[in-house]
Amino acid sequence: MPNPPAEPMLPRPYRVLKVGRETGDTFTLTLAAAAGGAGFSFAPGQFNMLYAFGVGEAPISISGDPERPENLVHTVRAVGAVTRAICGLKKGEVLGVRGPYGAAWPVAAAAGQDVLVIAGGLGLAPLRPAVYHLLAHRPDYGNLELIYGARTPEDLLYRKELEGWRGRFDFRVHVTVDAARGEWRGNVGVVPNLISRARFDAANTLALICGPGVMMRFTVQELLGHGLKMENIYVSMERNMKCGLGLCGHCQLGPFFVCKDGPVFRYDLLKDWFLTREV
Amino acid sequence: METPESSLTTHPFFQGMTPRHLSMVGECASRVNFQAGQFLFREQEEAAQFYLINHGQVAVEVFRARRGPITLQTLGEGKALGWFWFDKPYHWHYDARALQLTRATALDVKALMYKCEQDYELGYALMKRYAQMLAVQFRVVAMQIADMYG
């Protein structure tokens, strides 16, 4: 895990190098330190607080390659004032960055095992750095399977990259959507239904899951039904994170602070709170 | 050569069924192939068959004026298709179209119902599987309706 930032409450200015539109309301921003320099290292699954000057801060997962920290990549959906402002930034404009924060996907611990990467909707963004790591260290792992679901084909993130991954002989990619028009030739259905198509040895498999709560609940049930151990299932939780340091309490989930103890949690440690409503 | 009965024994839907019951179901079964684009059935047609997909992929579609067909679900190898053969007036409510060359086992619903009436143990064994399939289907539809990615 990289060292925590030296001045954790101080945003550093980052300049927008590129803005790419993923879907109607979701954009991927590539950033570089405005003062130059090498950027900072991060682990797959960590997030930054992005600050749109004069509007506010929002926690956004890092979606770039952890082995290329010189460019910081974030995929953002425009859903509120802050994220709309971030998505509206143009090339050359500047925003503030604090981070990286939070616990990471256990990609090192997964060595020697099969790995199921299971994402729904925007949940592929925090999992993409894990995929980069797994593919960069491909010989260290058994079967690698990505299961990804979105609302429609138009809502799929990283479409070209998904097609590229699907072309590999050592990585199986399963994509599904909730509904589609006639021209879509892929799967239509929900993510948990695709688990039975994945090849994995349940006793030696790690599952990394990120997506909407409903999807994650059903996915965990399905994985347990296939014989995965609870301690081999990891989920990424989304909460209203503010300070990023476990101080303000905005993101408290039972005994945990999602910003500091998560957002990635081992399921057996979280399960009582994972299934509890209104916490 | 694979017979309709042997294709039943390997299909997940009939996993655990006794050889006697499998033999009875096999008497109602036939092997069918569909080319890519061919319809297995269309809305309003009589639901005379219950399909077990052995190979390939099928889209379950609803047709909407000016928007054309919308795919609600795709079903592949090991899945069962045909949720309405216990629902009067026994007509399909959707279209089902093969997305690629699809091999399936078709069960004649009337013959199967007759056998179930003759042998309640067979009826119960079949109903348990059918109910489980409906429960899974209900869960899938509930997740889709929830529009969880919104």
Keywords:
heterodimer, A: about 280 residues, alpha/beta, 7 helices, globular, B: about 150 residues, alpha+beta, 4-stranded antiparallel beta sheet, 4 helices, 8 strands
Concise summary:
Chain A is α/β, with parallel strands linked by helices and 279 residues long. Chain A has helices spanning 81-87, 124-136, 159-166, 191-194, 213-225, 258-261, 267-274, and strands at 12-21, 26-33, 47-52, 56-61, 72-77, 94-101, 114-120, 144-150, 172-177, 180-181, 187-188, 205-210, 233-236, 252-253, 256-257, 264-266.
Give the SSE map.
The complex is a heterodimer of chains A (279) and B (150).
Chain A: E1 12-21, E2 26-33, E3 47-52, E4 56-61, E5 72-77, H1 81-87, E6 94-101, E7 114-120, H2 124-136, E8 144-150, H3 159-166, E9 172-177, E10 180-181, E11 187-188, H4 191-194, E12 205-210, H5 213-225, E13 233-236, E14 252-253, E15 256-257, H6 258-261, E16 264-266, H7 267-274
Parallel strand pairs in A: 7-8, 7-12, 8-9, 9-11, 12-13
Antiparallel strand pairs in A: 1-2, 1-6, 2-5, 3-4, 3-6, 13-16, 14-15
Chain B: H1 4-9, H2 19-26, E1 29-34, E2 39-41, E3 49-55, E4 57-64, E5 68-76, E6 80-81, E7 95-98, E8 102-108, H3 109-118, H4 120-145
Antiparallel strand pairs in B: 1-8, 2-7, 3-6, 3-8, 4-5, 4-7
Helix pairs in contact in B: 3-4
| Low-pLDDT regions of chain B | none
Rounded to the nearest angstrom, the radius of gyration of chain A is 18 Å
Looking at how many chains there are and whether they match, the oligomeric state comes to heterodimer
The secondary structure category of chain A is alpha/beta
Strand order of the largest sheet of chain B: 1-8-3-6
Question: Residue share in helices of chain A?
Answer: 10-25%
Strand order of the largest sheet of chain A: 11-9-8-7-12-13-16
Low-confidence stretches of chain A: none
The largest sheet of chain B, given as strand count, sense and whether it forms a barrel, is: 4 strands, antiparallel
The strand count of chain A comes to 16
Report how far the terminal alpha carbons of chain B are from each other: 49 Å
Largest sheet of chain A: 7 strands, mixed
